[in-house]
Write a structure and sequence with these properties.
Blueprint lengths: L1 E4 L9 H10 L5 E6 L11 H10 L4 E6 L7 H7 L1 E7 L6 H10 L3 E6 L17 E5 L14 H14 L5 E5 L7 H6 L4 E4 L1 H4 L4 H15 L2
Parallel strand pairs: 1-8, 2-3, 3-4, 4-5, 5-6, 6-7, 7-8
Helix pairs in contact: 2-3
């Protein structure tokens, strides 16, 4: 299981320390949510913050664009330091072209799906996708309750990839924590994004290690 703590849940006045906690806790990535106040009802991290984070950590930045018209600033986010970059299927008009642009820049190309969007919409595009980010909350705010039915989507997506002989990473974002990470991994998820379950805890480093332990116990 790959662990990507969501920096949005950390102390926004001290993101450098949050990045250091991620490294010490054994995280594989730092998850960065970019929201535009249009595609989702919130505004969050932009280009200057991503550039600053990339300069102070050796962990790869896994950037999730929750924005309308993601193509508009795609190159800028890639240049700012996004190593993995996901765009929403619901916001992308020319998804194939967008994914190719991400890959051509040397980053891993991902597609994010809202909870109510079925994984079957990716059937034709799956060979061009490096990873799929399944939203297990409705995007826009941290700290929302986990939607259990999204785990069935992970299982269906894993079967789709198997039948198509396609190698993809399945990620899940939203409400993942110690109480459900075992079930999430069992459903076929490879990468877990955790926000409040890490930075909302008294000891974020211990929380990350416990999440990984629970995931390893549940791994097939």
């Amino acid at each position: 299981m790959l662990l990507s703590p969501s920096i949005l849940a950390a102390d926004l006045a001290d993101l450098k320390s949050a990045a250091e906690l991620c490294l010490r806790g054994g995280a594989d990535f730092i998850h960065v949510d970019v929201m535009d106040g249009h595609f989702v009802p919130n505004l969050t991290i932009g280009l200057p913050v991503i550039e600053a984070l990339a300069a102070v950590t050796r962990l790869p930045l896994e950037v999730h664009l929750m924005v309308s018209n993601p193509d508009r600033l795609l190159d800028e986010y890639l240049q700012a330091g996004a190593a993995w970059l996901s765009v929403h299927w619901e916001a992308s008009t020319h998804l194939d072209r967008t994914l190719n642009r991400i890959r051509d820049a040397g980053a891993r190309a991902g597609v994010a799906l809202n909870p109510a969007t079925p994984v079957e919409v990716l059937a034709d595009i799956l060979p061009a996708v490096d990873y799929v980010m399944l939203m297990s909350v409705n995007p826009g705010f941290s700290g929302q309750p986990f939607l259990p039915y999204v785990m069935t989507k992970a299982s269906r997506l894993r079967e789709m990839a198997r039948q198509g002989e396609t190698e993809i990473t399945i990620a899940m974002d939203g409400g993942v924590g110690a109480d459900n990470i075992g079930q999430v991994v069992e459903s076929g998820v490879d990468l877990c994004v955790a926000g409040s379950a890490v930075f909302g805890q008294e000891d974020p480093i211990a929380a990350m290690r416990e999440l990984r332990r629970l995931a390893e116990v549940a791994s097939p």
